[in-house]
């Protein structure tokens, strides 16, 4: 054994170095193709990298969640000591879900675009869906929240969040056009010439679940026209000016609908919801440029 090899062995023993290998795998979450079929082994190099990423997540998610729970308990303890109200806990929120009177206004998140997005962008959509659910369940008058075109890819992506089936969301595998009356549907799209002044009861507003970095601009408008359903855009340009592009995330659009339906004035709702980095400020002109696609998301919007 040469000196270099001996030094290397001593380093590994001293530092208790452990390299993650296939021998450490005790779970197999599997890897599926675009059609939802489980891929046979052996994988190619790219597939194996994705599979190992999923394995690492499965192995460490319980440990990670345990640490998150411990941190949450510590924050609650510190808040009680400082006499700070953190609002209702999960148990109270679950009980409140059955006691609240829901708004007659419905919102649909259309998830029919998963074939147009990368895995990374699909995860962004799930993250924004989670945010929509969170703010909705804390509202005194929550919206009727529906998810349509809930396909195999989305089910796999959202399965990272245990208990999603119990969220106060109506999941539909079919498209909204096959579920709801066409005359009640309104697709939100910046290309529409119709500007919303108020959200009508019994109407159902559709947000496109698409994070595509503006590669498919106008797609939601085209779909609405082809399906013969009403389309409209939010009156963003009428009330605020922004320093950045007028591109809103899914959860921003959802929260604007929620706040306005609760009775908040448009200008107050927009200033409250839009992030500070947008540099939004009130304007008094309705001739400003129109909205970008409300269902889309730019890189820095998360």
TrEMBL record:
It is an enzyme of class 2 (transferase). GO terms for molecular function: tRNA (guanosine(9)-N1)-methyltransferase activity; tRNA binding. It catalyses: guanosine(9) in tRNA + S-adenosyl-L-methionine = N(1)-methylguanosine(9) in tRNA + S-adenosyl-L-homocysteine + H(+). GO terms for biological process: tRNA N1-guanine methylation. Its EC number is 2.1.1.221. InterPro entries: MT_TRM10-typ, MT_TRM10-typ_sf, TRM10/TRM10A, tRNA_m1G_MeTrfase_euk. The keyword S-adenosyl-L-methionine applies. Keywords: Methyltransferase, S-adenosyl-L-methionine, Transferase. Residues 88-281 form the SAM-dependent MTase TRM10-type domain. The active site is at residue 212. S-adenosyl-L-methionine binds at residues 188, 208, 220, 234. GO terms for cellular component: nucleoplasm. PANTHER family: TRNA (GUANINE-9-) METHYLTRANSFERASE (PTHR13563), TRNA METHYLTRANSFERASE 10 HOMOLOG A (PTHR13563:SF13). This is tRNA (guanine(9)-N(1))-methyltransferase. It comes from Pieris brassicae.
């Amino acid at each position: 054994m040469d000196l270099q090899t001996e030094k290397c062995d001593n380093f590994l023993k001293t530092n208790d170095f452990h390299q993650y290998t296939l021998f450490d795998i005790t779970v197999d979450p599997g890897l599926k193709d675009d059609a939802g079929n489980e891929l046979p082994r052996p994988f190619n190099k790219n597939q194996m990298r994705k599979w190992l990423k999923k394995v690492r997540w499965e192995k460490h998610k319980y440990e990670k969640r345990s640490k998150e729970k411990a941190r949450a308990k510590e924050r609650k303890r510190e808040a009680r000591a400082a006499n700070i109200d953190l609002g209702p806990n999960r148990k109270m929120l679950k009980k409140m879900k059955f006691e609240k009177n829901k708004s007659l206004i419905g919102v649909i998140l259309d998830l029919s675009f998963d074939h147009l997005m990368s895995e990374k962008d699909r995860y962004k959509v799930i993250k924004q869906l989670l945010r929509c659910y969170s703010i909705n369940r804390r509202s005194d008058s929550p919206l009727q929240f529906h998810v349509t075109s809930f396909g195999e890819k989305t089910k796999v992506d959202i399965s990272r969040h245990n208990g999603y089936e119990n969220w106060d969301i109506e999941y539909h595998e079919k498209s909204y056009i096959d579920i709801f009356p066409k005359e009640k549907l309104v697709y939100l799209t910046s290309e529409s010439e119709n500007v919303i002044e108020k959200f009508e009861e019994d109407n159902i507003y559709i947000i496109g679940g698409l994070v595509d970095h503006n590669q498919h601009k106008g797609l939601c408008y085209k779909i609405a026209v082809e399906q013969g359903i009403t389309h409209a855009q939010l009156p963003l340009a009428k009330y605020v000016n922004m320093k950045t592009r007028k591109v809103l995330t899914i959860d921003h659009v959802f929260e604007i609908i929620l706040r306005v339906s609760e009775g908040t004035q448009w200008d107050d709702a927009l200033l409250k919801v839009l992030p500070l980095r947008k540099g939004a400020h009130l304007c008094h002109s309705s001739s400003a440029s129109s909205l970008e696609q409300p269902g889309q998301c730019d890189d820095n919007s998360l």
